[in-house]
Amino acid sequence: MARPLRIIHIADCHLDAPSRSLAREVRERVEQSARASFERAVGLAVDREADALVIAGDLFDRDLVRIATELWLGEALAEATAAGVTVIVATGNHDPGGGGGPLDRIAWPQSRFHLVRSPAPVRIPVCRRDGSLAGVVIAAGHASARERDNLVAGFPADDADVPVVGLVHCQVYGYEGQHDRYAPCTAADLDRPGYAYWALGHVHGGGPVASETPAWYAGCLQGRHFGEMGAKGALDVEIDADSVRAEFRPLAPVRWQEIVCDDLAAIDDTRAMIEHCEHRFDELTREHGVLPGQDWVLRVRLRGATPFFAELRGAEAADDLALALRGRLQLLDVEVRDDGVVPPVEVAEHEGQPHVLGVALDLIRQARHDDKLLAQLAPAQLAGAPEDEAARAAYIRALLDGLDVDIAAAMLDERER
Ligand SMILES: [Mn+2]
Asked: Residue 260 C-alpha to ligand 1 middle, in angstroms?
């Protein structure tokens, strides 16, 4: 039986994208990581003896490219083509084919290379090193930065007796995540006759599309901010007559991640706080897709009642804690956010007291046992409440759980400010 068609599918590399609001060294590290991640994708294609490396749009971030990138990119791609990998680049809304810019400045490889920069689909036979036909890639590119047409609808049916792959940068309706609706299509549009797999770009989160024909977003190649968290890399895809296997391969040297710490009731000093964060970070480092030597940009969100509240009150406290964590956990960068830290509350201390909080706490306590009072306190229209009277009372009573602590914390916090 013939060897399956093997492709490495990447997208949204956004080379030389400027990152905002970061320290210069972090910014440069992230930019450099985009190139490193790209080199790893090329290395993966060579190591896996892939038939093709397909890039589904937004290889560049804008119409500018740094000289270092200009000189490096052609050579990086030539490593793939020299090893027998066919490289196919389709343009996206960030690097439209009509725009020129970087597309015209790169010394692209002379053979086994295809740049598809306009919406008319181009049929590209992908040949193995021995010259036999491994598969067919049909690709379309964006010509302008605001491609409103449904590009996928223009892809022709194909009856090749090798696997056929569609390559395009597009927004599939209903796919999660907020993205500009360039080249919109539906999942049903992807069910074109003859296609085995769609290599898509545009959605930076990545993952499979709910379509009959297997279709995946590769996600961006290197996260650049907290909107692009988690492992980033390439899809390693194998297609034969009756199956498609797409496996995610993490490549990005820098990983963005967020930790929410909302169980801080026992944290009463800086040392305990740092240990708590260290423990949570250790859990992260054991996650799937973490690379050896992974660089991290971390955001720690602190929430809820904690005795550590007092230490966090100074204007620089969060930054100081971040600095300590950065050294201790050897992070590329870290920010600490006070996301609603409140002092610990002894509810009992305030009950029965002749102030607003005391009265509020007494009401909550009484309503726990008094159905009539409960009915009076609850609004007539309450979303999610059952019709049945007893069930409704139980439902509202469940809403009271923890409310005493929340109210006390909120009111005491108001008073502190
Ligand atoms: Mn993009």
From this structure: 27
Task: Give the β-pairing of 243-250 and 5-10.
Answer: unpaired
Assess contact for 81 and 115: CB atoms under 8 A.
no
Hey, which residues does 164 pair with through a beta bridge?
Answer: 136
Domains and CATH numbers, the chain: 5-250 (3.60.21.10), 254-342 (no CATH), 347-416 (no CATH)
- Sign of CA pseudo-dihedral 98, 89, 217, 290: negative
Tens-place pLDDT, residues 250-295: 999 999 999 999 999 999 999 999 999 999 999 999 998 999 999 9
**C-alpha angle 43-44-46 in degrees, rounded to nearest 5:** 65
For 149-173, what is each residue's pLDDT tens digit?
999 999 999 999 999 999 999 999 8
Q: Which residues surround ligand 1, an ion (CB under 5 A)?
A: 12, 58
Alpha carbon separation from 180 to 63, 146, 175, 369 (Å, rounded): 19, 9, 12, 52
Give the containing element (helix H, strand E) for 343.
none
Task: Report the alpha-carbon distance of residue 137 to residue 313 in Å, rounded.
Answer: 59
The 10s digit of each residue's pLDDT in 209-239 is 999 999 999 999 999 999 999 999 999 999 9
pTM, rounded to two decimals: 0.84
Distance 220 CA to ligand 1 centre (A): 7
